[in-house]
Amino acid sequence: MQNVDQYYPASGRVILHVDMNAFYCSVHEAEDPEQYKGKATAVAGSVESRRGIIVTCSYAARRLGISTGMQVQKALRICPSLILIKPNFHLYRKYSNAFMQIAYSYTPLLEAVSIDECYLDITGSRQFGTPLEIAGNLQRRIMEELGLPCSIGIAPNKLLAKIASDLKKPSGISVLRLRDVPSILWDKPCNEMFGIGSKTAEKLRKLGIYSIGQLAAADETMLVGHFGVMGSWLKRAGNGIDHGIVNPEREQSKSIGHTTTLPHDVVGLAEARPILLNLSDQVARRLRKQGLVAAGVQLTIRTPDMKTITRSRQLEAPTESSEDIYKAVCDQFARHWKGDKPVRLLGVTLQGLTLKEEAAIQLDLFDYERQPKKESLNKAMDMLRNKFGENAVLTAGMLSDSHSARLRNHKERGTSLQKDNLNGAERDAD
């Protein structure tokens, strides 16, 4: 093999940022190219025009003016032939794990930052070739083995690698070195710098800082005075400096949340209860899967006119129980929301997360006696859902009127089946 040391810095690092292009749509195209390849497609949380939002769309759709976050109704006006696809997160996780495994074959220093992107530190991967050769081979393998396009940024740090991966899409490979920062970035507006949102960019404009170049030249003391410790980061970012390492150890979640936009507005706690119970059950299950407990809970409510409020509270003790979470969010709803005001979205977020094995959970005598049975039941229910799907076990409170009617029609058969499955799962859990 050729001597590739000349392509690596004598000191410092070589970082790749791998960004899958239009990931959800690309996965569906890879699964069913005859139906979707080269066509204007969009994955939407719901195909109902009232609540539907475009989660992502294909590049063919983007060329027609469709964009992420656009309402489905508007997207269909722009492109009546747009193909709408319901999300399939099980399928997305399958493809995400597959492309991560390909990337991992080049270095163990892989940091997954979302389902469709990761950083690789390839400083010690000289045996696979130059950085450009590694990026090219990685991109080719992901396309040949999975049918997925991706863009890759090559840089001496994570910040510049992330920016570089956005320079050529789809299917591009870009190199961004520190010496390239003035010519490539400094004339761009501040909000095009990764990590600078619209609110921060607006505050910078009020300070007379409009471009990344002006940010790079700004007085750091002044920036710290207006932005706190973030001011120092802004100064470094403007100059393309980033000291963050590629961390292969996944950080513990800071929060776990789930929201749902409702097909019809709900009014009052009675109508909201089954939705809140579903949300509490989902976040509690994710909590248990990670071996965590939550010390606080946040309720999110959005009105039909898109106004959003959040209300948080501490729990009496850290918990992993959907029952405790459900009780808390119902209390929040009753205390902070008038019964005659309609709601279009509800969300439950768990906060103050700690490892269950490290948490000091205080129980009264009644809870102490019930706790082993509750944990056994939770394990059994989680096992059933892992094996048979989310709807394998439903509590009475989760059922809508239509579900309840179907349950009554099949009460004897359904009860018998659920008991058999639950007893089997409890035996497995034990």
Automatic annotation (TrEMBL):
Residues 15-197 form the UmuC domain. Residues 405-430 are annotated as: Disordered. Mg(2+) binds at residues 19, 116. Its cofactor is Mg(2+). Keywords: Cytoplasm, DNA damage, DNA repair, DNA replication, DNA-binding, DNA-directed DNA polymerase, Magnesium, Metal-binding, Mutator protein, Nucleotidyltransferase, Transferase. Binds 2 magnesium ions per subunit. InterPro entries: DNA/RNA_pol_sf, DNA_pol_Y-fam_lit_finger_sf, DNA_pol_Y-fam_little_finger, DNA_polymerase-Y, DNApol_IV, PolY_HhH_motif, Rev_trsase/Diguanyl_cyclase, UmuC. It holds the Pfam family IMS. Monomer. Belongs to the DNA polymerase type-Y family. This is DNA polymerase IV. It comes from Paenibacillus tritici. The gene is dinB.
